[in-house]
Design a protein that fits this description.
Layout: H1 4-23, E1 31-32, E2 34-37, E3 65-68, E4 76-83, E5 96-100, E6 107-110, E7 124-128, E8 152-163, E9 166-179
Parallel strand pairs: 1-9
Antiparallel strand pairs: 2-3, 3-6, 4-5, 4-8, 5-7, 8-9
Amino acid sequence: MPHRPIVTHFATAALVLAAAATTGAAVSAAENLELRFLDEAWNGETVPEGSQCQKFGGEAGSPAMHVAGIPEQANALIIEFSDRDFAPMDNGGHGKFGLEIEPGTGSIDVGSVPGHTTDLPAGFFVVEEHKAPAWDKAGAYLPPCSGGRGNSYYLTVKAVHRMGEETHELASGTLEMGKY
């Protein structure tokens, strides 16, 4: 009799895991990252002056940010930049780059990455170059570039576990960059 409760607990745990597997549910995927800009000029309402693309006189790189709530298994962050109001540049159309991190890193300050280039600081890597037309230089990040038409820009950070070419998303978060 003393073994029966143990078997019942194992059976219950197995049923929960099986249910999660068949529904595609994953506890870690529901986690949200805590994100904030390190520079107060990035207020989420207006893209700071000088932070637009080179075509419109900008020279700055991506906004530096603090990322917290990173799951223990994460070994990289993927950062995607988007223009919500221009479909070809939404969903990471302004570029995607990553940052290698040590598993167990709970929070980290992510520095700025220059725009219009694939020459990234140590630890960063290109995931997908921006999708700007041929008039722009290729690169991992294209700063806001609507010419001041009031487009809304945002970024998404994903904490992932990478194994070779395979990437498993563990948590994510979004920050409004502002309008330009």
